[in-house]
Design a protein that fits this description.
The protein contains no helices and eleven strands. The protein is globular. Strand 4 and strand 5 form a beta hairpin.
Length: 124
């Protein structure tokens, strides 16, 4: 019974900050990589950030230098600190579990579980 629940979304003005949280349950959280993905109105999915089970972090170009992903394994929670927000950051933000699928040619990432999302709006 894997469950991911995002929270912390809301309305902020350009230049403001807001932290999103994702509470996980139903799997071994500490060994799992996690991602944040977002979808702006009328647009496709945009990968935001990833954090490995060991704490290594990666960011999409659009948020690099402004957003910070982190995790607290004791609380089974992953966070996305969003600073210097822009109207373009307005989107539904999703938390997703990351699995690695291996083949004879290498491996790729799979996102088998997603939360319901939380709305993050940046507007003056």
């Amino acid at each position: 019974q894997v469950q991911l629940v995002e929270s912390g979304g809301g309305l902020v003005q350009p230049g403001g900050s807001l932290r999103l949280s994702c509470a996980a349950s139903g799997f071994t959280f500490s060994s799992s990589a996690m991602s944040w993905v977002r979808q702006a109105p009328g647009k496709g999915l945009d990968w935001v950030s990833n954090i490995s089970g060991g704490g290594s972090t990666y960011y999409g170009d659009s948020v690099k230098g402004r957003f910070t992903i982190s995790r607290n394994n004791a609380k089974n929670t992953v966070y996305l600190q969003r600073n210097r927000l822009k109207p373009e950051d307005t989107a539904v933000y999703y938390c997703a579990k990351v699995d690695y699928v291996y083949s004879a040619f290498g491996y790729y990432k799979s996102y088998p579980y997603w939360g319901q999302g939380t709305q993050g709006t940046v507007s003056s």
